[in-house]
């Protein structure tokens, strides 16, 4: 059952929250919009509604670029994921993009949930 679907734009990532056996969250693309809080609030609200479920959440996150306004919002999404009974976070990054890999490692350290890190060609990802 599809819960939320947002198509990507030049400045915002695509988002999919789906629920079948587990809850699946996929975020992919650029996050460089000026209204980051407004954009990510919809995701946080959808996750809030799913928190009552006993299902595992599997989040696959693949950013090409994040601006500083988006970093805080992504941290809020990750903290929401942390509240689920079981959660798995897959942090994907473009081949040789050490900055994005390090960004994921920073998030991992802050929220205290181990991430799976996958280096990927952007077109092949999520």
Layout: helices, strands, pairs:
Layout: E1 2-6, E2 14-19, E3 23-31, H1 36-50, E4 57-66, H2 68-82, E5 87-94, H3 98-111, E6 115-120
Parallel strand pairs: 3-4, 4-5, 5-6
Antiparallel strand pairs: 1-2, 2-3
Keywords:
3 helices; Transcription Regulator spoIIAA; 126 residues; alpha/beta; 6-stranded mixed beta sheet
What does this structure look like?
- The protein has 126 residues and is an alpha/beta fold.
- The chain is 35% helix and 35% strand.
- It contains 3 helices and 6 strands; from the N terminus they run βββαβαβαβ.
- It has a 6-stranded mixed beta sheet, with helices on one face.
- α1 packs parallel to α2.
- The longest helix is centred in the middle third of the chain and has 15 residues, at 36-50.
- The model has no long low-confidence stretch (mean pLDDT 92).
Helix content: 25-40%
Low-confidence stretches: none
Strand percentage lies at 25-35%
The topology string of helices and strands comes to: EEEHEHEHE
Give the biggest sheet.
Answer: 6 strands, mixed
Termini separation: 18 Å
CATH superfamily placement? STAS domain
CATH level-two architecture? 2-Layer Sandwich
User: How many strands in all?
Assistant: 6
Strand arrangement across the biggest beta sheet: 1-2-3-4-5-6
Could you provide a short overview of the structure?
The chain has about 130 residues and is an alpha/beta fold.
């Amino acid at each position: 059952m599809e819960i939320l679907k947002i198509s990507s734009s030049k400045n915002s990532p695509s988002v999919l929250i789906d629920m079948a056996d587990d809850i699946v969250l996929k975020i992919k693309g650029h996050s460089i919009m000026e209204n980051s809080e407004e954009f990510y609030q919809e995701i946080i609200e959808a996750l809030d509604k799913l928190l009552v479920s006993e299902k595992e959440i599997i989040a696959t996150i693949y950013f090409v670029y994040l601006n500083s306004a988006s970093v805080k919002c992504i941290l809020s999404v990750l903290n929401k994921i942390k509240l689920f009974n079981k959660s798995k976070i897959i942090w994907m990054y473009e081949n040789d993009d050490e900055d994005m890999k390090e960004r994921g490692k920073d998030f991992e350290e802050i929220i205290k949930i181990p991430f799976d890190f996958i280096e990927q060609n952007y077109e092949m990802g999520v």
